[in-house]
């Protein structure tokens, strides 16, 4: 590698480490806020968030794919949310083993409350960024994500 290539490579590595540290810090703060202020967990919030995006519900397998976690992880969370009447399971017609999970009206209300807090936490954690900074960062991350998606398609 040439010196310029090495320094570009090192700069990319430093950016990656800063991104990782930032994401881990924000995620840790969100986990604490959910746990301490709302007696819930980030995985539960994530399941409710996914189901809020799909009002007709999702098959359990689609929910785990959407969240990129195992079926077992999703099943355990949905079980608890069902016990609390925040989620309901509905059989899939024609498929005796499949079920669709969807938020109940109680679950929708609970998620709206949590989502409002979540947005406020993120707003506070990123309040040093001006709109121009946010747009630049968002555009840059979109390019990185698009490159990853292209590589996934090429590998498939």
Automatic annotation (TrEMBL):
SUPFAM superfamilies: Winged helix' DNA-binding domain (SSF46785). PROSITE patterns: HTH_MARR_2. SMART domains: HTH_MARR (SM00347). One of its GO terms (molecular function) is DNA-binding transcription factor activity. GO terms for biological process: response to stress. Residues 5-146 form the HTH marR-type domain. PANTHER family: HTH-TYPE TRANSCRIPTIONAL REPRESSOR YETL, TRANSCRIPTIONAL REGULATOR, MARR FAMILY. This is HTH-type transcriptional regulator MhqR. It comes from Roseibium album. The gene is mhqR_1.
């Amino acid at each position: 590698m040439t010196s310029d290539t090495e320094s570009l490579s090192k700069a990319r590595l430093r950016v990656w480490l800063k991104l990782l540290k930032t994401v881990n810090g924000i995620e840790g703060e969100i986990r604490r806020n959910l746990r301490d202020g709302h007696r819930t967990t980030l995985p539960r919030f994530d399941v409710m968030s996914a189901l809020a995006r799909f009002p007709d519900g999702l098959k359990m397998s689609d929910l785990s794919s959407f969240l990129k976690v195992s079926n077992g992880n999703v099943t355990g969370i949905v079980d608890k949310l069902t016990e609390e009447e925040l989620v309901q399971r509905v059989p899939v017609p024609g498929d005796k083993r499949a079920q669709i999970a969807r938020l109940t009206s109680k679950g929708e209300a609970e998620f709206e409350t949590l989502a409002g807090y979540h947005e406020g936490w993120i707003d506070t954690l990123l309040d040093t960024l001006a709109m121009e900074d946010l747009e630049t960062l968002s555009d840059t991350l979109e390019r990185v994500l698009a490159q990853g998606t292209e590589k996934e398609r090429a590998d498939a």
